[in-house]
């Protein structure tokens, strides 16, 4: 087999890159080790930055998103028994975020790829990357008991933290930056109406809580738990009671509870590798970086990587601008580290750390009070939350 760009991973980043490149007339082949049903079964993010919304529109996969997604002009931060609203639209010159689940984004992209006839191979096992520093890279995989070779120009590693792409780079070539947080998020999905029209991020003595949603009838709620907690120890009743404890009284009184349809615990970590490229291989999304979900940046950072790689490859194939390939990592990492900083800051300000003493708690509360009480502070939060601009490729 032969293609121009081999894409490893059929999650939203791989599919979005494939869709954009296909529209630009560049051949792609997507290899995914799981089934389509497994990929769609992952419960993930639901807050899309303005930049990602615009990119999905550019890819031509926005029809259902624009029809069913919820545009949010702001969100609220709850602490010290009060709620303060961050006016995203007013503070950023009209930018907003879109509430639209990652599962739905993935489904839209899958259907678009199927409709355009671009090839995807699911249940591709033992994927291996070869000659990444050579003139002619290629990929091999196993399917139905046979080994298949794919010759290509470039490889996009969109296969996540546990994928083969990053593991294909020699350990002495990349530097790893990591911070593991001493807690996780216990989250549930429920078919109940949201407690608030906009998201609520809550700082409380008992720990962090988040009131989010997937639609006007489906909610996603989280509470901070210790890193050694087990899902099976949390009944629905226990979860709802704990959530109510961490919300302002008037919000807790309005909370409508119901049976959970999904419940899981997600550990929190910050993770970055440098560089994000190795020869003809380019790491995209979780293969190169992970952020704690507090700032809603994971999927959105993957989208900005996609945008950067897509725009570079278009100029490579149309104008022969191969020198731009060496700028991929540098351009991506500038935005990655700014998003890492914001996610770390949101996590630090909103969570209860095990070793925080009374002084640290007062500093945390004062920091929140200062930021929400200052227009400059609210603007800083807002412009980071809606997403910093994508860097142009010149």
From TrEMBL:
One of its GO terms (biological process) is benzoate catabolic process. PANTHER family: P-HYDROXYBENZOATE HYDROXYLASE, TRK SYSTEM POTASSIUM UPTAKE PROTEIN. Residues 3-343 form the FAD-binding domain. It comes from Pseudomonas duriflava. It is an enzyme of class 1 (oxidoreductase). Keywords: FAD, Flavoprotein, Monooxygenase, Oxidoreductase. This is 4-hydroxybenzoate 3-monooxygenase. Its EC number is 1.14.13.2. GO terms for molecular function: 4-hydroxybenzoate 3-monooxygenase activity; FAD binding.
